[in-house]
Structure formats: C-alpha cells, structure tokens
Amino acid sequence: MMLQRSKPPKSHRPVFTLPTYKEIDVGLSKPAVLFEKPDCETLKIEVVFKAGSARQAKSLQAFFTQKLLKEGTVSFPDQGVNYTTDLHGGYLVCGSTEDTTSVALYALKQNLNELLEVFFSVLTEPVFEQKAFEREIDVERNHFLVQTQKNSYLSALAVKAHLFEPESLYYSKLSVDDFDALKREDVQAFFSTQYNLYEADVILAGDVNLEQIKNIQDRFFKAVSSRAFKQSEPLKKVLLQKPNEIFIRKKEAIQSSIRLVLPCIDSHHQDFFKLKFAVMVLGGYFGSRLMANIREDKGYTYGIGAFVKSLTQQSYVSISTEVGIRHTRDTCKEIFYEIEKLTQIAVSQEELHRVKNYYLGQLVRNFDGVFLHAEMYKKCTVIQQEFSYYAQMYDAFKNMTSEDVLETSQAYLKADKVTQIIVGEA
Amino acid sequence: MINFQTHTLSNGLRLILHQDLSTPLVAVNTLYRVGAKDEEVKRTGFAHLFEHLMFGGSKHIAQFDAPLQMASGENNAFTNNDITNYYITLPKENLEIALWLESDRMLELDFSQKSLEVQKNVVIEEFKQRYLNQPYGDVWLKLRPLAYKIHPYRWPTIGKEIQHISDAELKDVEAFFYTYYRPNNAILSIAGNIDIAKTIDLVEKWYSDIPSGVPQSKSIPPEPKQTEKRVLHHSADVPLNAIYKVFHMCSRTHKDYHATDFVSDVLSLGKSSRFQASLIREQGLFSSIDAYILGSDDPGLFVVSGKLQPGVSFEKAEEAIDKELDQLKTKHIHPNELKRVKNKAQSSFAFSSLELLNRAMNLALFEHLGDAQNLNLELEKYAAVQIEDISRVAQELFRDENSSVLYYAKNKKQ
User: Fold this and answer.
1) Nearest by CB: A145 against B122, B126, B240
2) What average pLDDT does this structure show over B384-396?
3) Does the domain formed by B230-410 have CATH 3.30.830.10?
4) Are B37 and B84 in contact (CB under 8 A)?
5) For residue range A245-297, what is the model confidence (pLDDT) as tens digits?
6) In b/e form, how buried is each residue of B172-187, taking b as 16+ CB within 10 angstroms?
7) For B393-412, b where at least 16 C-beta lie within 10 A, e where not — what string?
8) Residue A297 with chain B: CB contacts under 8 Å
9) Most exposed residue of A185, A382, A389, B374, measured as fewest CB within 10 angstroms of its CB?
10) Which residues of B touch A11 (CB under 8 A)?
C-alpha cells in the first residue's frame, strides 16, 4: 500500500494521572512529602521556607542570606560545607524568590548519610562570617555590573520598580549602592527571624530506605527542637502603580528589550485557568500568536513569549522580547494588535484544539518522573494550592471553548492596563 | 546502565531504541552528522541557518510545528560545530506523528524563498542577541580564529559575520540538504515507553523509502601543531577586564578525554576547586574564574576564563593562573581531589540520565562518536583515571606554545 504522507497518523490526547506521595511526620507543622522511586540511585531533599524577598526589610537581604548559607557553619567552618558536599558528589542548591527560599540537596543514595550531616548544619547553624560576607558581596556586585549592561536585565528590573508602588510588597529598585548598604547583621537577622523551619515545607524524591527515613526524621526533630520559632508576621499589602510607558534609552543599543506587564487575577480565582489558557494562545508556546506574527512572519526577533507570573499576593501577565532597534515601535504595535485580536475574534476550533493538546502534553511532560513531581508539588505549595490543583488544571484545559478564550481575554487582557517598558532605542 | 537495541535500515539510517516503561512519554532524537565545521569558509553560519529552515514545512506537510502541537508534542533543535540535532518529546500514544513529521522533512524539505528570508532575519537577530548585544558576547568570534588557523573550528556556529547569513541563497539550501540530510548521514534514537518490535516496524514504514545520499567523506584539514603563544588585545564597553586563555586538547574520543575533563574539574568545579580557593578567596584576584573543555569530534580546546577584580593587572592575573596550572604539572593532586571529581562525575551522570530526552540524545551522540555502547562505558572511563594521568595530561596541555590568550579590556572612559 502506498504510504499516505499528506495525512497525519491518528493521534490521541494524553491522559494525566496525578502522582501519589507518602507523608512522613518529621515534627514540623506539616508532614514531609515523599515521591518514591525505588531502585534509582539518587535522592533529592528540599526544604522550602517562606523567606522570600517579600519579607525583607532591606534590599538584597533574602538573596545574601541564602547565598551565605554554604559559606561556613558551626560544624563545617570556612569552606567545610562546600568541601564535604563536593567530596561526596552532592549538590547543595540554595535559592530565593519573591516568596520563598529553598535549600535542596541532591545526593547519590550511597553517600546520603555524610551529606545529610552537612545539609542539616546549613539549615540550622550557619555562621555568616564577616570575611565570607564581604567576599560574596564583592562577587555579586561585580556580577550585577555585568548584568546591568544587558538591556534584558534592566527591563526585568524595571518591572518591579514600575508595576508596584514604592511602599508596596514586591516593589524593588535595585542599584549598586544596595550592595554597600547591606550589613552582616542584616543577613543574620533575616536568618533568625524568617527561616522558620517549623513552618517550612519538606519535599523528598527518589529512592530512600527505612533506615534513611528514620535518620532524616531524627535530624528534623532535633533541628526543630533546638530553637523556638516565632510565627511569621503577615505580609505587607500590594499597591499597584497606574499603567505607564517607561522608556530607558541606551545609546548604541543593537536591540531593544521590551516588557509588557499587566496585573491579573491569581490562582484562587475561578477564571484563572482560563486566563492561563488565553495567555498560552497569545504567547505561551512556539506556535503562539506572538511567535507566528513577530518571529515567523516578520522576523523581528529570535523569540517572544507571554506567561502568567504567580506570586502569592499578586499575579501578572508578562510579555517579553528582544528586537532589533528599528523594529521596537512596530513590535509594540503588533503585540497590542494581537491582544486586541484575542478580545475580538474567537479562536478557531483548530487552534483551540492545538493549544489544548499542546498544553495538556506539557502538563504530562512536567510530571515525567518523581523529581519533576517534587518540583511541581513545590510550585503549587508556594502559591498555596493543594496538589490536586493540577488535576483541576487538566480538567479546565480539557473543557476550554473558544467562547471561554474570548470572554476571558475581554475580561482580563485590557490594553489600557498594560505597563510598557522599553530599554534600548525606539 | 542504559539498555538499548540497534537496527540499520537499508538506506543507511541508523536506529537506536531504548525502552523505559515507567514514563508516559517518548523522545525522538534525530542527529544529522553535519555542523559548522562542514561549512565553506565564505558561507559560515549556514548549518545553523539551515536548522531554522527545517521548521518551515516539508514536501507533504505545510507546517512542522502545528501537527506536533496538535499531538501534544514539544520540539527543538541545536547546531554545534560537529552536528545538528533535532528532538521531540510527546505522549507515547503519538509516537507515529513524530516519525511522520521527521521522515517527511528527511525525504524532502519545502524549499521556500519566504521561509529563507524570514529565517535569515531571525538568525541575524539571534546573532545580535547572543553575540553582539551582550557584554563579552563576541569573545568566541575572536578566540576561535586566534586558536585555530586552518581547521573550520575557527568560526563559531552562528557564523563569522552577519553578511554570510544575509548572503545565503535558496540554491545553497537545496544543495546542502541533498548533501548532508540523507538517511545514511543520520542517527535516529527513540527512547521511552515503546514496544521495540513495533517501533522498528513503524520506522521502516516511514523511513525506508527515503533515498540514500552520496556518502560524505569530506576531509577536514587538521589544525597544525601550534608552535608559539598567540595573544590578542581587545577592548569594549564592559564593566570588568577579562582574560581568556585556551589550550589545544584532545578530541572527544581520545583516551585522555576523561582525564582532561577532570583537570578542568580539579581547577574549577565547585566552590572547593583550586581556582575558587586560591584565585578568588585567598588571593582575591578574580571576581569569577572557570576552567572547562570543549569536547568535539576533532581536537578541542581547554578554556580558562576569568573576570579580574578592579585594580588587578592582566600580567598579575595571568601569572596567577599559570602558577595554578604549573602546580598541576609538577605535583600530584591530593587523593581527595580525585575522589571529589569522580563522585561528582558519577552523580552528575546519574541525575542527567534521569531525563528521558538526555538518554535519547546521548545514545545518538555516542553512536555518532563511534558506538552508542560507549555511553555505558563513560563512568568506567572516568573511574579509571589515575592521579598520574592528571599530571601527565596537564604537562601536555599547559605549555606556553600551546596557548592563545585574549585580553578583553574595559574601555578607559568607563
């Protein structure tokens, strides 16, 4: 039989099954969760504190606190943490966002015990030595100087400074002076007041035997009883600035960095999944409206994307791209045109199904294996959602209609609410 | 251990199959054995531009991406100096869609003028975004021609200059396709929740009628042995002075590759590495400094790159680097240093192999390098490296006459 190359073979919509996990009491306010994969040689353990930059009194406080965790503890002074972790082939990864700070250990099962020793030392007894503090400030200040030469970095910084009011939660306007203003006492204070282990989330993934679980439990019990934790204070309020057009001229720029931001509903709102879907149609994947128009039709850019940024207290739609300077204005015009179009013309059935299937496939890809399960669990915990959030998301996407996209775009993608930031030339 | 089976089609297409029933997905990786090193000197950047054109539609399928998205799939591609690699992940039920799409663009591309014009612009913007509109973005545009004088590794994948991309014509596209994008110049690797026998049948169904091409045996001139140190001074609007010192090293398949990799790890992998301890923390000479290798089909480069602390001269910085490199040549490393890099290699291999797509890509890559089975010998090869190998390799690498140095200075006015 002649091969039919013009017609696609049959395809099926992927089925999503929410993975299961075990709960383990480790003496904290919530049980630890374990995504188990027997017979794999690796294990990840992550502790997520509600100690993001939203809780800092001074710029960079949250960032440098996590940065210095590995630079010396009581039991592993100087470079002891790094030496021991490296020696046993472990990876100790710390990071902070607006809402959280997380400390994660990636280990080969065979070296777990040695690495747990270091991990718990980092969680409970960092010393924030003055010399290490000065060195890290210096390294990061230099890194900041390099970063601020990039228009894309400047435009990302500008989002926080122009979306939120100066006294608001999440407002930030970083400058090189902030590196000099930070003191060692600031990071010590941030650690002792904000790293509340009792309220933290603990997420494990991989292969771990009963003896190792007992070991982990004992260490958490000991850590949490070693000091008293004050309940976290409520966060400040979010105050939004009026929509604005910001233009930061960079002479001799070759490309402009463009960011459009639009405050929106959060994940607890009944229309949230619909909005996420509409933003996907607009700019959330390679075949999106923005990519099709601005990259694939006009060739103005290497890439353009849109997504919903979810913070615990405020979400916003963000659209970003880098374009040749002579296309700056045209690109902005085309972005608004595409937003407008979504609010006026219903998506075709073909496009609706394409986005739906793609998005459902992405959900399945995001859950391929226990380490990704753990990652997704963390993501929903941060925005204060249950794990079943993803099952709801799957159902919501599956049931989307073109009318949903149209109505959601009309309700939430309002061009006059957009703040536009351009760094470069226009 | 990554289990796999191989099968070769009569048109020369090599197939590698790896079964993992724990995943709901399949990864389909197509490696074409063509990269920037196969380009003509006046047509650089072409292999990468061509990669973009592979998404512009094929003989029977107007658009590549849309049907794949409809089948819940995701895809991308990359080009380097040696290969061009295309990959798809999608739900296992839809494997055949990936084979339908990939086989049609292997059969015949839709050579469209519009697609060529648009993708030239896109690639030019990529050139600007990655190489020109970034501090230090043009380093490899300068370093490669300093280190290589004859070998086509002397230009980066993006191309020597934007003009070469603008000049590309449709007839070049067609010629390139029929020279390099033939089944006998490709390796197809499929990993995931598959039935091996059925998958072989499906591959036969979609690929067996694609004609072979003329086998490619283009001889690439080897880089002559370097006989004296090369230096280049350059200045730009950057915030910190930077130094880039590169040495010629062995190829990816050479027996010393793993020891060479460890030399770079001893120097700069992790905070406990020598560069971090000595050059950053103790002497405070650098704001950041790294050592890494460019493992490639033909002899590659060992790279040391560092950003200098303000007030530190290039002479002092280079002297300090040289001193560290000399120590590796003259004194054996501590057994714990070797233990550390071996443990790190083992765990990084384990974590990287968790990802299905990595397994598919690596199987194809090792097949390209000679034999997919070698992927399973990697850890043994790393484990076999001895302390003496580190000094011996360091002695071969770190010779003045084997080095090229780029002094990247910040402009005075800043």
Assistant:
1) B240
2) 98
3) yes
4) no
5) 999 999 888 899 999 999 999 999 999 999 999 999 999 999 999 999 999 89
6) bbeebbeebbbbbbbb
7) bbebbbeeebbbbbbbbbee
8) 118
9) A185
10) 70-72, 93-94, 96-97
Instruction: Provide the shortest C-alpha distance from residue A323 to chain B (in Å).
Output: 7
Which residues on adjacent β-strands are paired with residue B390?
A: none
Which of 265-284 (B) contact A at CB < 8 A?
A: 269-273, 277, 280-281, 284
Instruction: Give the ranges where B238-313 is alpha helix by DSSP (H).
Output: 257-268, 274
Q: Rg of the Cα trace of chain B?
A: 23
Identify all chain B residues contacting A397, using CB atoms and an 8 Å cutoff: none
Contacts of A255 in chain B (CB under 8 A): 125, 128-129, 133
Domains B5-207 and B230-410 share a fold: yes
Q: What is the dihedral of CA B252, B254, B258, B263, to 10 degrees?
A: -90
Q: Which residue of A has its CA nearest to B61?
A: A6
pLDDT band at B217 (very low <50, low <70, confident <90, very high): confident
A106 CB neighbours in chain B (<8 A) are 347, 351
pLDDT value for B178: 95
Residue range A406-410: mean pLDDT, rounded: 98
* pLDDT tens, residue by residue, A25-81: 999 999 999 999 988 899 999 999 999 999 999 999 999 999 999 999 999 999 999
What Rg, from alpha-carbon coordinates, does chain A have?
24
A295 to chain B, any CB pair closer than 8 A? The answer is yes
Closest-CA distance of chain B to residue A108, Å: 6
Interface test with B, best of A67, A73, A145, A300 (most B CBs within 10 A): A145
Cβ atoms of B77 and B84 closer than 8 Å:
yes
The residue of chain A nearest to residue B68, with distances taken between CA atoms, is A358
Which overall architecture, per CATH, does domain B5-207 show?
2-Layer Sandwich (3.30)
Contact residues, chain A, for B54 at CB < 8 Å:
none
Interface of A with B in 163-222 (CB under 8 A): none
Distances (CA, A) of A176 to A146, A390, B210: 11, 40, 60
pLDDT recorded at residue A252? 84
- For the whole model, what pTM was predicted? 0.94
Question: Mean per-residue pLDDT for B99-104?
Answer: 98
| SS3 per-residue string spanning B127-188 | HHHHHHCCCCCCHHHHHHHHHCCCCHHHCCCCCCCHHHHHCCCHHHHHHHHHHHCCHHHEEE
Q: Does B193 touch chain A (CB under 8 A)?
A: no
Q: Residue A337 pLDDT > 60, yes or no?
A: yes
Joined tokens for residue A99: 């809402």
pLDDT tens by residue, A213-256? 999 999 999 999 888 888 888 899 999 999 999 999 998 888 99
A134 in contact with B, Cβ within 8 Å: no
CB neighbour burial string for A322-358, b if at least 16 within 10 angstroms, e if fewer? bbbbebbeebbebbeebbeebbeebbeeebbebbbbb
Is B122 buried (19+), middle (13-18) or exposed (0-12) by CB count in 10 A?
buried
Residues ≥6 apart with Cβ < 8 Å to A171: A160, A161, A164, A165
**Shortest CA gap A216–chain B (Å):** 21
For chain A, the average pLDDT equals 95
Predicted pLDDT of residue B414: 44
Report ipTM for this prediction: 0.92
The domains of chain B are located at 5-207, 230-410
Q: Which two tokens stand for residue A207?
A: 């292969």
A422 and A250 Cβ atoms separated by less than 8 Å: no
Q: How far apart are the first and last CA of chain A?
A: 58
Spatial contact of B11 and B211, defined as CB atoms under 8 Å apart: yes
- For chain B, the average pLDDT equals 96
* The pLDDT value given to residue B413: 58
